[in-house]
Design goal:
Blueprint: E1 3-6, E2 11-14, E3 22-27, H1 38-56, E4 60-65, H2 72-81, H3 85-102, H4 118-130, E5 134-137, E6 140-143, H5 159-168, E7 184-189, E8 204-206, H6 208-220, E9 224-230, H7 234-249, E10 254-260, E11 263-265, E12 268-269, H8 280-283, H9 289-297, E13 305-306, H10 309-333, H11 343-362, H12 367-385, H13 392-407, H14 420-435, H15 439-451, E14 454-459, E15 462-467
Parallel strand pairs: 3-4, 3-9, 9-10, 11-13
Antiparallel strand pairs: 1-2, 5-6, 6-7, 7-8, 11-12, 14-15
Enzyme class: ligase
GO biological process, one term: cysteinyl-tRNA aminoacylation
EC number: 6.1.1.16
Length: 469
């Protein structure tokens, strides 16, 4: 049974889904005002790996991850560049998909955005006011923290201590509108040159925390199985999500809270505010994206991960070992016999190692220990490949299983580059498909060649091809 470390209870708990065999999972996505850095990518990769492991264990995962496309930072970039907030968001949403696709991150079941959820957000805020849990003040709307019993339970803080801390800090202009310094904004009155929407409280835009509450409950229900994100989101973002959501629905918001640790540069966490970040967009121009994926996915999600050239080099070496085993297995497959008497015994040995892998991963998705078991699995596979005679049945089974197990970590077998004759044969097949109006096959061949770095150019004289530089 899968055990999850629940931030809310600060202990590991057996995972019991709301609906048998299904997982409702919400993970806070990026604020889209720039390219993602390695720290952002860690959260994305960690929860992609967790999602993939759930699927490997037979669960149907409804995975929702949002884009925050309304935010102070987006407005600032829009004003600095002359773009609209929508244009800034669209640019960096596309960049997010480009970068995460390179890291072999599966697309979420749904990626809602704030702009497309505005009516629901306004209705949610109005409901909190009607329930006496929020109030309007000069066009802003604030949540009444002291009325929510248990505020601070996720971050393990007493509301009295939080109130004291809030009252002792330097007051801001917005604090004058609040009844209590700890109250937080659900809706913000529009400022000059800001994108805004009409609401019962005047033109404005939502506060950050309310957005995720609305998108999570709208698409996954009042109570969800798992809510995830970076550890820096636990307070105040996730704390406030709990307060808003449970005040509105009267139900428990999420049964399990999961938070991934930071990527560090030296001894500090990687962040844009500290200026010590490396953009994924830049890094994958310099190294194989699979190396970066391997680096991010091979560590336990709750352990800090130190970023360095040496760490990337180690990931590259380990990844090469995996790919070499795939390559050697393909080579031996060409001369393998169909089957051998000891095949069942051999496969049972690999199945036992896979059981050890499950045991480690079931323990709060311990990727580091799980990967150690997979290295043992590879070692046994390499010993088998050194035998004088090998079985095609065993090799095909191991290749299929390796694709599944390493696929949990987003690692795929590297295909050999197409030879010129193979390319020409595919081009001719594509030409015949187009003549037969089989455009689906024609597009499939073009995409296949593109994945191999082959660019096709259709000219009056025929189709030409070239390899991308």
């Amino acid at each position: 049974m899968i055990q999850i470390y629940n931030t809310l209870t600060r202990q590991k708990e057996a995972f019991k889904p709301i609906e048998e065999g299904k997982v409702r999972m919400y993970v806070c996505g990026p604020t889209v005002y720039n390219y993602i850095h390695i720290g952002n990518a860690r959260s994305t990769v960690s929860f992609d790996t967790i999602r993939r492991y759930f699927e490997y264990r037979g669960y149907d995962v409804n995975f929702v991850s949002n884009f925050t496309d309304v935010d102070d930072k987006i407005i600032r970039v829009a004003n600095e560049t002359g773009m609209t907030a929508e244009e800034v968001s669209k640019k960096y949403i596309e960049a997010f998909f480009e970068d995460t696709n390179a890291l072999n991150v599966k697309k979420a079941t749904l990626n809602p955005t704030v702009m497309n959820t505005m009516d629901d957000i306004i209705a949610f805020v109005a409901d909190l006011i009607d329930k006496g849990m929020a109030y309007e003040s000069e066009g802003d709307v604030y949540f009444i923290t002291e009325k929510f019993e248990g505020y601070g339970k996720l971050s393990d803080q007493r509301i009295e201590d939080l109130q004291m801390g809030a009252s002792n800090r330097t007051a801001s202009e917005d604090d004058a509108k609040k009844r209590n310094p700890l109250d937080f904004a659900l809706w913000k009155n529009a400022k000059p040159n800001e994108i805004s929407w009409n609401s019962p409280w005047g033109k404005g835009r939502p506060g950050w925390h309310i957005e995720c509450s609305v998108m999570a409950t709208k698409h996954l229900g009042d109570t969800i199985d798992i809510h995830g994100g970076g550890q820096d989101l636990a307070f105040p973002h996730h704390e406030n999500e709990i307060a808003q959501s449970e005040s509105k629905t009267g139900k428990k918001f999420a049964n399990y809270w999961m938070h991934n640790a930071f990527v560090t540069m030296g001894e500090e966490k990687m962040s844009k505010s500290l200026g010590n970040f490396v953009l994924v967009h830049d890094l994958i121009q310099q190294l194989d994206p699979q190396v970066l994926r391997f680096f991010l996915a091979s560590a336990h999600y709750r352990r800090p991960l130190k970023f360095s050239e040496a760490a990337l080099q180690e990931a590259a070496v380990n990844l090469e070992k995996v790919q070499t085993t795939f390559k050697n297995a393909r080579y031996r497959l060409e001369t393998a016999v169909d089957a051998l008497p000891e095949d069942a015994e051999r496969l049972a040995k690999f199945a036992a190692i896979e059981a050890d892998f499950q045991k480690e991963m079931d323990d709060d998705f311990n990727a580091a220990n799980g990967m150690t078991v997979l290295y043992q699995w590879l070692k046994e596979w390499n010993v088998y490949l050194e035998q004088e005679v090998v079985s095609k049945a065993v090799l095909e089974a191991l290749l299929e299983k390796a694709a599944v197990l390493f696929g949990i970590f987003g690692i795929v077998e590297k295909q050999e580059a197409l030879l010129d004759d193979d390319i020409q044969a595919l081009i001719e097949e594509r030409l015949e498909a187009r003549k037969a109006k089989n455009f689906a096959r024609s597009d499939e061949i073009r995409d296949l060649l593109k994945e191999q770095g082959i660019v096709l150019e259709d000219t009056p004289q025929g189709t030409r091809w070239r390899r991308e530089a």
